[in-house]
Specification:
The protein has helices spanning about 1-25, 30-40, 45-55, 70-100, 145-150, 155-160, 175-190, 235-250, and strands spanning about 60, 70, 105-110, 115-120, 195, 205-210, 215-225. By secondary structure, the protein is α+β, with helices and mostly antiparallel strands. It has two domains: about 1-70, Orthogonal Bundle (Arc Repressor Mutant, subunit A); about 80-250, Beta-Lactamase. β1 and β2 (about 70) form a beta hairpin.
Length: about 270
């Protein structure tokens, strides 16, 4: 019985995505009858899935013709996925070059309005290899990438942070909002952030923003390594190559500036 339910559930999910793909791929608005015919299913089944997708905002209906088109959620999802792919493509070669120059792990993260997500990691050359798995959602208050996100990202990140409990991962984790704001202000002034053992003991990171053609922060680039290689004060030998590489990636995305000080929430 459980296997039957699982198969039924998988088929239902498959049908939902099939319908979404058909609507998004259609040259014009499309009706339920056409969807049912194209997917070899009943009109009633197609209608149920269409209604669910409409309720979730992934489809919209023309009130005059009763036909369907992609909704706002589908558009935003496509935009987000496209920007991440562009970011990864713009960064791959630069990340490898930075790893070769410094020998440290290089981590690329995508910055959205509500989260900071790891896209890729190029593992360093040290005997102890340190990396962050792609797809990981980073805590904004406990790493250098999070500080950069708060300094240059969407104001909604601040609002979201204030609604959350600031979990203490190590004795160095910043859990006081006033102190965190001070770090964010300094990050905004310098264009980079340092986190010393904030999330994992023995591990530190330094990060810088990545900007798009509109000079808006769309990601972060970070060097991650043991405290032996990234001390509390990393110095220009680490910070300068990081910022130079983040700027190179930003230029690949169409950014025209000569530095990495975008219009953060207090500079707009």
């Amino acid at each position: 019985m459980d296997d039957e339910k699982n198969r039924s559930g998988v088929k239902s999910v498959q049908m939902t995505f099939d319908i979404l793909e058909k609507v998004v791929g259609a040259a014009d608005e499309i009706g339920v009858s056409e969807l049912a015919a194209q997917l070899n299913t009943t009109k009633a089944t197609a209608f149920r899935h269409v209604q669910t997708l409409m309720e979730l905002g992934y489809l919209a209906q023309n009130p005059v013709t009763s036909r369907y088109r992609p909704g706002v959620k589908a558009y935003l999802l496509g935009q987000s996925a496209g920007s991440r792919i562009d970011l990864l493509g713009a960064a791959e070669a630069a990340m490898r070059d930075l790893r070769e120059e410094l020998g440290l792990s290089v981590v690329l993260s995508s910055l959205g309005t509500r989260e900071l997500t790891v896209l890729a990691t190029v593992i360093g050359k040290a005997a102890l290899e340190i990396g962050v798995r792609p797809g990981t959602s980073l805590a904004l208050h406990a790493n250098a990438q999070g500080y950069v996100a708060l300094a240059f990202g969407h104001p909604e990140l601040h609002a979201q942070l204030k609604r959350q409990e600031l979990i203490r991962y190590t004795r160095y984790t910043v859990t006081d909002l006033a102190r965190l704001e001070s770090i964010v202000r300094k990050t905004r002034e310098t264009g980079y952030a340092i986190a010393f053992e904030a999330e994992t003991l023995g591990i530190s990171a330094v990060a810088a923003p990545i900007l798009d053609s509109n000079a808006q922060a769309v990601g972060t680039l970070a060097l991650v390594g043991s405290v032996q290689y990234i001390p509390k004060d990393p110095g220009e030998g680490i910070i300068a190559p990081l910022q130079r590489t983040a700027l190179r990636i930003s230029w690949n995305l169409g950014y025209k500036g000569a530095d990495l000080l975008p219009a953060g929430p207090e500079r707009r």
